Amino acid sequence: MEGDCLSCMKYLMFLFNFFIFLGGACLLGVGIWVIVDPTGFREIVAANPLLFTGAYIMLAMGAMLFLLGFLGCCGAIRENKCLLLFFFMFILLIFLAELSAAILAFIFRENLTREFFTKELKKHYLRNNDTDVFSSTWNSVMITFACCGVNGPEDFEAVPPLPHSSLESVTPEACCQRELQSREGMFVNKEACLTGVERFQNRQGCYTVILNSFETYVYLAGALAIGVLAIELFAMIFAMCLFRGIQ
Prior knowledge:
The protein has helices spanning 2-36, 49-78, 81-107, 114-124, 133-145, 190-194, 206-245. By secondary structure, it is an all-alpha fold.
């Protein structure tokens, strides 16, 4: 009976570590995607190093979970006490680090508020200056999501117009409606948009549009994080039980 229980514990340990292995692979992939940043979205919050630190922490955690999941699977199948102890100690450290990161993310969540993005936009945005990474990224976001500013076109009232511009417009070109939402898309009526005709402008703020677009994924990421923490907790319990059961 004891042997059957130990065998069951071994395969449960393997199963939980397999999920840890997959979770680590997912975090590793997301961390690489954020750092490589194919959309340039991170430049919008370039003034806040805390967000970049979070991306590197996610990458490091993903790599460690990936490795430890693999070691845990090997330790369970081979019934190696050294590997199991090594796994338990490091998974405990990762568990505590992830818990601390979750608490810090909750404490510093105000860095992602509407007011923060509005302040950064008014401070750094240079309209159609594509040589400026911040401005170019904001223009790409506004074109892609068919939105304007953080709250709406009124965010650009404090942004000075471009020199040598023939049209004195508060609204940048990126806020003008296009037939296709890409930089190659033709304007519906660029001149009317820049002279203030609202029906040719994208009036909705990007904060609301993007928040609505990613709301489902935020809850999914939160559920995934809770699931990973629960799996790690059970894996530690199984690792210690298996460690004590191996003769």
